[in-house]
Specification:
This protein is α/β, with parallel strands linked by helices and about 375 residues long. It has one domain: Rossmann fold (3-Layer(aba) Sandwich). It is built from 18 helices and 5 strands. Strands 2-3-1-4-5 form a 5-stranded parallel β-sheet, sandwiched between helices. It comes from Mycolicibacterium rhodesiae (strain NBB3) (Mycobacterium rhodesiae).
């Protein structure tokens, strides 16, 4: 095995156990995901050798987090009594307004947001008092303040808004992993059963909420569309807000974003191959979403179109609240409208890209995604 660039799962588990001083990694099928991920990184990866320490460090950190979660449960059995209401889940294709919608709803204190900073290290669970000075929050905010202007133009960031559950799913090693060039892993992930993953997800969410009210959770993750049934099994009362946009805009925009998230490559990265992979990946996601929505029940889904968010943001927010049967207080409504004014499209700069640089064309994408466009009556953009 000496010719292997990356460690084996057993090596990583041993390193994490030594670092964490514990051995109970908790429930679920995370070992399978870790194995597939490392194999895909070995086979599909194009990363520069200088990235190895950081990439493996992230995987080790997630394993140590698992150890700490189990230790916390062992020492604090009252966590098992934590209640979860809802949750409300915002999903759909990426680049369709999921972040904007989530950031706006996150301004409402009746929601418990799944913040990025608490996911990176869930133990100890946050408490309301002194939360602004929580070292995890301070470090997370500082890291994002150092982002480039290009990055800020591509993606809105609010430190206390609900964010993708990338880290929690990462701890289960059943996350989408659109942060690494692991096409083989993603193909496996799209088609694998995430029932145990979302059971573990709930375990971590209960811990995070155990000392920090309220208990009406707000989730946001475009990748949830791939496994809606597994998610709804873990959260039987969940209601879904799904966002939509012309895939001819979505696919190149998301490919461009992903190309900036991947760590540096050893040579020239094949952007055409990446464009093809992203298009196939998202296509399978919307196919799965349509099938699984029908089985879950369409009454649990509200569809929001990107054009509505852009042309009538105030009306769209009111429609969401009406559908959820939640009160939108005048104070919260004003804070949301203020946010809308400050974050209109282009306010932080313009995200520049073309479909052609990723080997894509608007015509081909719309042809491939024709079933999706028809199913949700998605408007084409100029």
């Amino acid at each position: 095995m000496s010719d292997m660039r990356y460690p084996t799962p057993d090596q990583l588990l041993a390193e994490a156990a030594a670092e964490g001083g514990r051995s109970d990694f908790g429930p679920g099928d995370f070992r399978e995901g870790l194995t597939v991920l490392l194999e895909s990184l070995e086979r599909d990866g194009d990363l520069h050798p200088d990235t190895d320490a950081a990439v493996m460090g992230d995987l080790r950190r997630r394993l140590v987090n698992r150890l700490e979660v189990e230790a916390w449960y062992a020492d604090h059995p009252e966590v098992n009594d934590a209640t979860i209401t809802g949750p409300i889940d915002i999903n759909g294709l990426p680049r369709t307004g999921t972040t904007a919608l989530a950031d706006m709803l996150s301004l409402d204190p009746q929601f418990r947001c799944l913040r990025g900073w608490e996911q990176t290290k869930p133990v100890p669970p946050p408490v309301t008092e002194g939360e602004a000075e929580d070292p995890r929050r301070v470090a997370f905010l500082r890291a994002h303040q150092q982002r480039s202007a290009e990055s800020a133009a591509m993606h809105i960031f609010e430190v206390d808004a609900t964010m993708e559950d990338t880290e929690i799913l990462g701890m289960a090693f059943h996350g989408q992993q659109m942060t690494l060039p692991v096409a083989g892993y993603r193909k496996w992930w799209r088609r694998t059963d995430l029932t145990q993953t979302y059971e573990y997800h709930r375990r971590v969410v209960e811990l995070l909420g155990s000392q920090r009210p309220p208990d009406l959770w707000l989730f946001k993750a475009p990748h949830h569309k791939f496994h809606l049934e597994a998610l709804s099994r873990a959260y039987p009362e969940m209601r879904f807000v799904m966002t939509h946009r012309d895939p001819a805009k979505v696919v190149p925009s998301y490919t461009s974003l992903v190309s900036t998230i991947f760590p540096p490559a050893a040579g020239q990265r094949d952007l055409h191959a990446l464009g093809h992979e992203v298009s196939v990946h998202l296509l399978e996601g919307v196919q799965r979403a349509i099938e699984e929505r029908a089985r879950i029940g369409e009454d649990r889904f509200l569809d929001i179109h990107h054009r509505e968010l852009v042309t009538d943001p105030k009306g769209t927010i009111r429609r969401v609240y009406d559908w959820l049967d939640l009160e939108l207080t005048p104070e919260v409504e004003q804070s949301i409208f203020d946010w809308q004014d400050a974050n209109m499209m282009g306010a932080k700069g313009t995200h520049r890209y073309t479909a052609e640089q990723f080997g894509l064309s608007a015509e081909q994408i719309r042809s491939d995604y024709g079933f999706y466009i028809r199913h949700f009556d998605v408007a084409k953009e100029g």
